[in-house]
Structures are given as C-alpha cells and as structure tokens.
Amino acid sequence: MRPRTLVLVGAALAAVSLGLPWRSVAGTDSGARFFIVAAIALALVGGLYPARPQVLRWAAYAGIAGIALYAGLALTGGTLALFAAALCFWLAGRLTPEESLRPGG
C-alpha cells in the first residue's frame, strides 16, 4: 500500500474513533479528543504534500498518547480504531522515502 493511501485510511480511522465509544461516552466527549485531532492534523500535514516521515511518526505518537489515557480500561471501538490509525501513520512514515526530506528532493 502506498504511504499516501495509508495516511488517508489512518485519518479516516481516527475520525471514526471520535464517534465510537471509549468508555461510557463517545470519543468527542473523551479527554483523548485533543490527541485524535492532533494525530489527524499531523498526518495530513506530514503525509500529503510533501511527505515527511518524521511528522508521520509524530502523528502515530499522538494517537498512542490518546490511547494511553485509557490504558487501564477495556479495549473499546474507539481505542481500537485509533490504534489502527496510529499503525497506519507509523507504517506510512516507514514507507516514505527519506530523500524527500532533502532540500530540492
């Protein structure tokens, strides 16, 4: 799968996680919503034009930080969707060539 496709799939999964339950409330009412929005923003900025692998990795870390808020609780649809999104962002960062970081590259 291409890195850009992974970024778009990950952004969609992260957006879906906002509507899924995290505990007794949906993701829009949870404390993780800041990290979800940050992960989406970082992924879209770092993954589309031009692709920047380090920003994609930060998007994955933001998603994991959002999940860490609920680490002691049972896995729910929201946490699983955000984990899948973070995995997509991390994989996109791994698949993006490092030479795109060089000036003029």
Largest sheet: none
Low-confidence region ranges: none
Distance between the amino and carboxyl termini: 22 Å
| Contiguous helical run count | 4
What is the H/E string? HHHH
Helix content: 55-70%
Backbone shape? elongated
How many discrete structural domains?
1
Radius of gyration: 14 Å
Which structural class should the secondary elements be placed in?
Answer: mainly alpha
Strand content: under 5%
Topology:
Layout: H1 3-19, H2 33-47, H3 53-68, H4 77-95
Helix pairs in contact: 1-2, 1-4, 2-3, 2-4, 3-4
Tell me what the structure shows.
The chain has 105 residues and is an all-alpha fold. It has one domain. Helix 1 packs antiparallel against helix 2 and helix 2 runs antiparallel to helix 3. The two termini are 22 Å apart. The mean pLDDT is 83.
Short description:
This protein is mostly helical and 105 residues long. The chain has helices spanning 3-19, 33-47, 53-68, 77-95. The chain has one domain (3-99).
What are the key terms here?
105 residues
